[in-house]
Amino acid sequence: MFLFSRCTTLAVFVVLSSLAAAFSQAQTYASGFADAEWSTKSGPFACSLSHDIPAFGTAYFGQNAGSAGFFEFRGVKKGFPAGAVKLESVPPLWRSDVAPQTLFTVQTTPVRLNAEQLKTMVASLESGTNLVFSSAGTNEDGTSVRVIVDARNFAASYTTYKRCLANLIPYTFGQLSRTVIYYAGDASTLSSAAKAQLDKIVRYTKADNKVLGILVDAHSDRRETAEAAEQLSQQQAELVTDYLIDKGLPAASITTRWHGDQFPIADNQHKAGQAKNRRITLRLENESTRKDIERRVAARKAAEEKAAAEQAAKAAAEAEKQAASGASSVTTSQLEELVEQQNLNNGKQPDL
Rounded to an integer, what distance in angstroms lies between the CA atom of residue 60 and that of residue 112? Predict the structure, then answer.
């Protein structure tokens, strides 16, 4: 028993001595014992877990809607020197049963981790093992940089962070802002696939208060008559709108339109083309998209007005040219007749 204690004490001493020797040549940043806190922020579109490191910056885990998780140092006052950065797991002083371990080396600065490295890093913190980032390069004064990410209080905060990730909306405005739903030629109800797409729009729209409205535009393939095509597109547009309203979206935020077969995107002579033409397009509007549409409308209006002005100017110039040409187009015989009719007493030309 005595021998075991001496060996254990010796091992701890060796570990601490090696760490002290290594840190003596490095500028080391770490939180104090009382400051080793982790903070979480949760929302439907972003989750974050952060740890402040005094005089250095913030260790930051994050994930945004529709993207992968990441880790980075934010608000860095003085970063790592250029070159590789090594990551080690270093147990707290009381964990004499665990030895320091090199996890991996990152070859770029600022630090960027792939999914597997991120997983390894989280596992180490969850187990209560601190992380040490060490630069291979040195600053102008010859010192390297080491940053300690403290594992204290990480596990409890990470549980909250994972709950946020589980509820994170897995798609972005850009991914849903223009959604196309296709329907069968004899469809009188929405398909399961259509409902699944609409459910995404409903979930996103309810969570994002920046969505100002939804435009629903339905189109059909060519039918026996234009009236039949318009009726089919109207039916499909109203099916979609009714579904959105039933799911809790306000009717006032939805603009519903149908266009029959006026705007085909494929050849109606073939079944494949007809299937593409039978579609409902849903567009989500926010302030940015509305301004973009307003700019396009204004640009088109300006172009039309410019073209009309150019056409009017061209027509006016042509009319003026014709008038000038008509005024000077007098034949030789007409000139001779005018001379014969001239009043020799007063020199006046007879009226034309």
Answer: 12
In a domain, 244, yes or no: yes
**Of the residues 236, 258, 285, the one at which a domain ends:** 285
pLDDT tier at 251 (50, 70, 90 boundaries)?
very high
In this model, does residue 3 exceed pLDDT 50?
no
The Cα–Cα gap between 215 and 218 comes to: 10
Per the structure, the complete domain to which residue 217 belongs is given by 173-285
Amino acid occupying residue 294: E
- Of 70, 39, 73, residue with least CA distance to 56: 73
Measured CA to CA, the distance from residue 109 to residue 69 in angstroms comes to 18
Q: 188, 4, 12, 180: which is closest to 95 by C-alpha?
A: 12
Residue 21 has pLDDT above 80, yes or no: no
Q: In terms of pLDDT, which residue wins out, 91 or 272?
A: 272
Q: Is residue 344 part of a domain?
A: no
Residues 6+ apart with CB under 8 A from 243: 190, 195, 198
Tokens of 180: 């196309």
- Are 134 and 179 found together in one domain? no
311 is a domain residue? no
Question: Per-residue pLDDT tens for 67-102?
Answer: 899 999 999 988 888 889 999 998 877 777 778 899
Which pLDDT band holds residue 300 (cuts at 50, 70, 90)?
confident
Between CA 142 and CA 149, with CA 143 as vertex, the angle to 5 degrees is: 160
Whether pTM > 0.85 for this model: the answer is: no
Q: Domain holding 76: CATH number?
A: 2.60.40.2540
Q: How high does pLDDT run on average in the chain?
A: 85
Q: Rg for the chain (alpha carbons), in Å?
A: 38
Please count the structural domains in the chain: 2
- CA distance to 17, 18, 20, 61, 87, per residue, from 11 (Å): 10, 11, 14, 33, 22
Kindly state whether residues 136 and 266 are assigned to the same domain.
no
Is 11 among the domain residues? Answer: no
- Point out the domain boundary residue: 166, 191, 214: 166
